[in-house]
Write a structure and sequence with these properties.
By secondary structure, this protein is of the alpha+beta class. Helix content is 33%, strand content 24%. A hairpin with a 4-residue loop joins β6 and β7.
């Protein structure tokens, strides 16, 4: 959907009335990941009931005409095209972007925040942010326990004083931190592998 008078482009996801609970579930997932909207997932504007159903028609594989009346619609920000598109992949590789690596990072970041759905077919490339974004959460679930642990760890890390200077940490919590804010190109395994034993010992002291 494009609002020509303002230049905004939105994505609309619609369904039939008897499937509206799927949009309701997806809306709850977006709310559970509120701090990730506009960072790793689209900004969700909410779900609305259409006063007049939107009729969509098409021709199926057998050549028969089909149509459905869509009554419920979710509006989201536009976050780019599917990274499976050959044109998108070719353009990214030409600019030196590792598509698979960036997709993996986005998936792992969201998994770390409690999202249990990791479909590779639900990833897009957002040109404005310069990163892979995750979309479609109608069958996803956010693990509240894992997210609670992550957020608690973020608060501890954010407030923890530096072991030498005594100053409070200034880095963003993980939930608001993108890999672009760190040294780009290093996998999570490389981050862990490069930690020195002394750093791990200091970390253990502050966690105790």
């Amino acid at each position: 959907m494009t609002l020509t008078g303002f230049g905004y482009t939105l994505m609309a996801k619609a369904t039939q009335g008897h499937k509206s609970e799927l949009l309701g579930h997806e809306l709850r997932t977006y709310r559970d990941l509120t701090d990730q909207q506009g960072v790793r997932i689209p900004v969700c504007l909410g779900v609305m009931r259409l006063e007049r159903p939107y009729v969509e028609s098409w021709i199926d594989e057998a050549g028969m005409p089909r149509c459905v009346a869509l009554t419920d619609m979710m509006l989201m920000s536009y976050v780019g095209r599917d990274i499976r598109s050959p044109r998108i992949r070719a353009g990214l590789r030409q600019r030196g972007n590792d598509v698979e690596g960036r997709a993996y990072i986005t998936q792992m970041e969201l998994w770390h925040l409690g999202l249990d759905s990791t479909g590779y077919n639900n990833l897009t490339w957002c040109e404005e942010l310069g990163r892979v974004m995750r979309v479609d959460f109608d069958h996803a679930h956010v693990d509240a326990v894992k997210r609670c642990i992550t957020c608690r760890s973020d608060r501890l890390n954010h407030r923890r004083p530096h072991p030498i200077t005594g100053k409070l940490a200034s880095r963003l919590p993980f939930a608001k931190l993108g890999w672009d804010d760190c040294t780009w190109g290093r996998s999570p395994f490389a981050q862990v592998r490069d930690v020195r034993p002394s750093d791990m010992a200091i970390e253990a002291l502050f966690l105790a």
